[in-house]
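[User] Once you have settled down, look closely at the record that follows, and write a paragraph about the fold.
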Amino acid sequence: MQNSKEIISEMENIYSVLLDNAVAYYIPEFQRNFVWGKEEITQLISDFTEDTDGFSADTNDLEGYLLGNIVLIDQGKKKIVVDGQQRLTTLSLFAKAISIVLSEHINEASTANNTKMVQTWSKRVGEIEKGFFILDDADDVQGLKIQHDPSLAFGNYYSKLIFDKNEPSDIIKEEDANIDIVYSQIYEFLSDLSDDQFIKFIQYFKTKIKIIVTSAPTEAKAFQLFEILNARGMSLEPMDLIKNTFLKTLSVEGKSELQISDFNQDWQGMMGNLQLGPKKKIASSTFLKQFLIAFRGENKKADQLFNYFKDPSNGFDGNTILDFIENMNKVSSVYREIELGNYCSFGDDQNMFILFKLLGIKQFHPLLMIFYSEEKEKKAKILDSITRLGAVVLFSYTQTNYIEKILPEIIKSYWTTYEKDKKAAFDNLISSIESHINELTPIMKANISTRNFVGKNGEVHSKALMLLKFIELYFNQNTKVQSVPKGKKITVEHILSRNLDLSNISLNDLGFSDDTERRDSIHKLGNLTLLYNTDNASVGNGSFKEKCPAYRISDFVMTSTIIEPVETGVKNGLDTRLFAYINKFEKQYISQNGQWTKELIETRSNDLAKLLECIVKNSYNED
């Protein structure tokens, strides 16, 4: 029998931590604010996707994902969270989003009279709610699973979100926005999964995501433990084990003190480059994984890295190690600048912004690494190709682990040919990328021309804004997307207003048979464009005719060209060829009754899908 005064540490899955109990986790006043945002949740989702091979692997075959540790003061049915509130809060947001998406699937299956799928989804609902609510035996809500001290202001917005009472106006502070961003990213990620992937994710979430839970009986013991875990000395990095393996090899092979000193300096330089700031660093395993893909065409999970370098069959003798670490140090200095947003360190600032900031794709780091020291022309060409590939992956709703799957083969082929013919190696690399673009383009085109870009709470999906910004910056070359004027924010404008006054016009006049059909069309691509938030507010819920003057003078080319073509290339700072392409692909639309109709929505959806097809295939001259 365990002593109640002991510190107890156990590895538990999410089912044990959140779902299989009526325990409340209390976040006390001394905790910091909720600081996770888009970058952290995107990385976590990427980790889950990699760990499950895109949620295609059977859950029983997976070893599991260790999310980290939490430190608690055990007070029976109430646990005081000393360390780990970011993780617990995020996990409860996952549970909330799973619950919402399950409800949506149940409604869809019920509408389609699909009894089997209604049962499939319904049996997964009950226990998931225990991830964010405390329920009694009758499944009535008794309170929140994650409870915040009143002094933590973001707890109020978190509570409203969990109880479905949150409004955009409730977002007052940065930490409120962080909660909203994290939840939105989770919801959209889950919504985009196929039925089979979603079912597997739920099981993975419950049983394979694991946390080391350390419980202390008193505050004194908990804070003593927290100090040991976080403040006493330097913790051992996974990379230190690899470093020690390398040093052992260098020693056994009798390398000189100078060579070992050079190794240590290169290693120290690399690790320093990965430290972006006092509280922010690049995970060394992430950098090493990407470096291996870049220069060896090997894609290894983080837990496979140590054994890979330890295995003598992989050829890491002393000389190889010295060259390897010297190159890692050089590459890490450029990698650091890119991660800090200094994109000119590679070349084309605009496409780097699109790739890393707008699309948020970091999986192409390995391909860029290869060309850090190449001439400007090659850099521009490879960057343009992978920017278009990244776009077609995202907008075809292909899991981004697709990139990690194809890169090793592409890169191995490149290095094999490189030794014989450098030009042929580069040409074949570009050709291979274009081949993958062509493979995904039909899927993308069919998807976005008909997709309902609805997100959480009936708002527009963030991917719609991303797509429109991509067209505006990449195709229209409008740098205002990259450098938004001070005091303004780029927003999605619904051409046919969501809250259009229907007292003076019928649904039939708009081309809809009923209001359900109208609602299903509101978030389609053909009904969406870009406006600044100030302009969006000023046009309000007017008709298309009433909005036309604001559209005509909009800073966004895709919006102004709905009304009239671009007049001259010189006036708009555009070169002649771009001017011609804009007027070819971004058409004007005429309304017979001053309203934006179902027919116009469908026509513009198809036009934008065709434009995006031409963009990603770089085929503007094709009819």
About this structure: Residues 53 and 181 are 25 Å apart (CA to CA). The radius of gyration is 27 Å. DSSP finds 27 helices and twelve strands in the chain.
